[in-house]
TrEMBL record:
GN (gene name): rplQ
Ranges in coiled-coil conformation: none
InterPro entries from the UniProt entry: Ribosomal_bL17, Ribosomal_bL17_CS, Ribosomal_bL17_sf
Domain of life: Bacteria
Biological process (GO), any one: translation
Biased amino acid composition, Basic residues: 131-140
Quaternary structure, from the entry: Part of the 50S ribosomal subunit. Contacts protein L32.
A Pfam family this chain is assigned to: Ribosomal_L17
Any one cellular-component term (Gene Ontology): cytosolic large ribosomal subunit
Listed name of the protein: Large ribosomal subunit protein bL17
Region described as Disordered: spans on this chain: 127-171
UniProt organism field: Elizabethkingia ursingii
Length: 171
């Protein structure tokens, strides 16, 4: 009996399970989404979210702690360079699990696990906010630049006309 079971053992020994979760976490950070079974995705979410929380503060200690879990120097640098700035303002829930049906070979329930901030289809609000801010800045800048140019053209056209009338009166 397995009373008080805290997590899914996934039918593996402890060393095999930790190695598998470490490799899956590296793949998730590197590719931003991976396709796996629902059970592994749920286990991976529990494994990777504390690592992502540690990456939000870039310090030598946090880098070493994250490296002890992932064991891949390139993935750790990717995590602290590109992923951490995007998730900096999020208080948790860095991953999303989307069920994708059943695998044809063994009918296993499959899922897609992805980093939430790297999917533009599910985050249209962020993209719209960025474009609207840019357009507002651009339009105010264009109006500010266009106004002095128009005034200068008006002054140029008035000046020669005034000179021509003065010359006629002097004659």
């Amino acid at each position: 009996m397995r009373h008080g079971k805290k997590f899914n053992h996934l039918g593996r020994t402890a060393s095999h399970r930790s190695a598998m979760l470490s490799n899956m976490a590296c793949s998730l950070i590197e590719h931003k989404r991976i396709h796996t079974t629902v059970a592994k995705a749920k286990a991976l979410r529990v494994f990777v979210e504390p690592i992502l929380t540690k990456s939000k503060e870039d310090s030598t200690h946090n880098r070493r702690v994250v490296f002890s879990y992932l064991q891949n120097k390139e993935v750790v640098s990717e995590l602290f360079r590109t992923v951490a700035p995007k998730i900096a303002n999020r208080n948790g829930g860095y991953t999303r699990i989307i069920k994708t049906g059943f695998r044809p070979g063994d009918a296993a329930d499959t899922a897609l696990i992805e980093l939430v901030d790297f999917n533009e289809l599910y985050n249209p609000n962020e993209a719209e906010k960025k474009t609207t801010r840019r357009s507002r800045r651009a339009t105010t800048t264009k109006k500010a630049e266009a106004a002095p140019v128009a005034e200068a053209k008006v002054e140029e056209t008035e000046a020669p006309v005034a000179d021509a009338t003065e010359e006629k009166t002097e004659e």
